[in-house]
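INPUT
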Amino acid sequence: MGEIEWKVSPRLDSQKRLGKLINQHYNGARELEETRAQPVAWVSTMSPSEILWAMDFCVQYPEAYAATCGARHVAHAHCEITEMHGYERHLCTYCRNSLGSTLGVLEGQDIFEPLARPDFLLVTNNTCILITKWFEHLSYYWKIPMVSIDCPVLLSGVDEREIIDHVKDQCLDLIKLLEGFTGKKFDYDRFKEVAGNAKRSGDNYREMINTSKNVPVPATFFDIMGHNFPNLVLRHKPETAEHYELMNAELKQRIADRIVSMPDIKYRLYWDGIPYWVAIRELSEKLQSLGMCLVISSYFELFAFDRNDPFDPLEGVAANTALSYFSRSVDYKAKFTEQMFKDFKLDAGIFAYTIGCKSGSIGMHYISDYVNKKLGAPMTIIEGDLVDETFYNVERNNMKLQALAEMLEAKNK
Amino acid sequence: MRGDGMITAGIDVGSTTTKAVLLGKDGIYSYSVQATGIDIPEATEQVLGESLAQANLSFEDIAGIVSTGYGRISIPFSSQTITEITCNAAGVHHLFPNATLVVDIGGQDSKAIKMDKKGRVRQFAMNDKCAAGTGKFLEVAAQTLRVDVEELGKTSLESKNKITISNTCTVFAQSEIVSLIARKTEKEDIAAALHESIGSRIYGLINSVYPEPKAEIVLTGGVARNIAIVKLLERMTGRMVMVPENPQIVTALGAAILARKVN
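OUTPUT
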């Protein structure tokens, strides 16, 4: 950081507001267990939830729940329940956590802060090809209906307009089905209002991510990643956009006041893949000890709903769903990652191969090699899992991270 | 102090063996290799003590010590810890200045390292957590076949019939060997199949660092002494394989070289 003096303050004030938003969401959902005042839907991450919010559903995300269980070190117990029911250990660990917690609840076991019981399931295959089968099993155990939205992989040369229209048709089918399910007419004005809130939230979310282009970053990847949650789960509410406005103001103030959240930053790093929730502390401490600051990740694209449009909400949600970053070809992702390295002024990359997420890991080798060849940035592929700590080897990954730091040091000599 | 302040030590604490190398301005003064066991500080003191005794030096003669390997952080007297990736590359570069591709097969892990001509690491890949593709795999297989592990490579070269070991997991492979023995399969054929199984793992590792098309392989680690692995890698990759005189101490040598810079 040269001659300039920077103050270190790890804690963001926005963390408190984030905690409040999360608690309100989960506590509100749990109250519905008693009142059943709203129907509850369980939804996969990049689904058109705006349609459900417009129909006054309470929307819950089993993937977000799995991440929480991983961070709280309780996911392994849920995974074991799934295994005891005969499921294979090498399945997606988010799926195992979700099925295990479901089976535990249904069997009256003591399960960590379970999601409110669902009435309806909506799944979209734009992030993963297994997820539809996972939700199919949830549908079987909860004995509730499920709608699956199909999003073809966006290989180069495909007509994106056709794909958006394909998803739009399915959204219209979903609306019709939900009208039958709830006995209520779909309210298009409410849909526009939801889309308007979601657009404001999404725009502010993107601005938050872009503050990390600053050198040095006002907040690291670890500080920001929790703030993905509101734009995923609560983007239909005006207070979510307000949360990001305040967050962005705080980040800009930190830049103006020369405040950073970690000391002695030597290198700016990219993270590829979903975070290893079970090892966040180990990773952040190790990286800090090596002077390596995690700045950004393509993982954030999973929460960036950039295409909402209050004037044409159906087009907006269909485009968000159809054009998911995770539906893109590996070539697209490689070029996108290269651009991120340039925009965010990154020195190196960590590719987090995930044993329980094969579809998220399959392209890592190609992408890391592509960017390495294009920009000469050193890369390492570490190995672990999102929520199952038995798949995580601290010493082995720490050695790879140290080797990455040594490569950077040698490169700069 | 003897050695004009130029004597450095490298200590490589691996999962199976601990190695020490004493390096002076004229090259390696002495080295020692011992089983790591459960007491890492004791093992390191022993290898360093033995190396010093061989060279007729004392601890005070050492200007700097770099420790490496999985137990690198357990050595209180080292000046710095550096990973085995960087140390191995430094050791190989010292012995083979033009080398750009290293395969290191140790007791419980195997690595492929791509370097530039200055010996700087450009890319590396390691085996996954499974012990298949490592020295441990051969050790377990040799025990099951009742063949000395040192002889397993030579035994495999006597094979006349090609068979396949379908499981690359060490534990499952062991049960497969037992069933092959029960079916009267020749031990030479089983040994050859085991080597093929390791070879395909290592071949994958090599490709994952995208080596230069004509780069020769420098093979290090204890398994490099296995002639069958050398021949197998040459056949599978179409590359020449070079083995240092003491392949097991290359990483410790690299640590001693890097200790000069630390110092």
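end of record. The helical segments of chain B are 40-55, 84-95, 135-145, 149-157, 170-182, 187-208, 227-237, 250-262.
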